[in-house]
Amino acid sequence: MADYRVETVRNGHRDWTARNDRGAEVRIGAADDPGVQPSFTPVELLLAALGGCGGLVMDRTARSVPHDGLVIRVESRSRPEDEGRVGVLRVTYEIDLPEGDDRAAEVFERGVRLTHEKYCTVSRTVEHGAWVEAVLPDGTVAFAAG
Prior knowledge:
The protein has a 3-stranded antiparallel sheet, with no helix packed on it. It has 3 helices and 7 strands; from the N terminus they run βββαββααββ. It is of the alpha+beta class. It starts with 5 loop residues before the first strand and ends with a strand. The chain has helices at about 40-60, 100-120, 120-130; strands at about 5-10, 15-20, 25-30, 70-75, 90-95, 130-135, 140-145. The chain has 2 domains: about 1-40, no CATH class; about 40-120, K homology (KH) domain (GMP Synthetase, Chain A, domain 3).
C-alpha cells in the first residue's frame, strides 16, 4: 500500500486548496459561503474519496463485466446525537447489467463485496477508524486519538 501526502493551504476566509504531489488540486470551502464556490466541503471530499476508491477497486475486481455505466452515489446522514460526526454513510452502486446474465450479476456483487471487505482503503479506514495525530509547528502532538 502506498503512503500519501496532501497539503492544504489557505486562500482566504473559509477558502482552502488541497494539493497532492502530482499537481492535482481541489478547492475546499463552506457550502453556505457563495464567495468560495464552486468548492467541495470536507465531508463531500470524504464521500468522493469513498466513491472514487470504490470505483477504482471495481475497475480491478469486476473487470470481466462491462461497467462503463457504473455510477457510485455516496450519501451521508447525521443526527444531533452523532456529535459532529457523520452517522451513516450509504454507498449505492447503480448499473444496468445485461438481463439474464447471472454470471455478470455475481461478478459485480462479488466486486462490491470485495471493495468493502478487502480492497478499498478509504472504506476500510472509515469502517475501522484510524489513529489521528495533530502536530504543532514545534513538533509536539496537540491531539491524538483513534
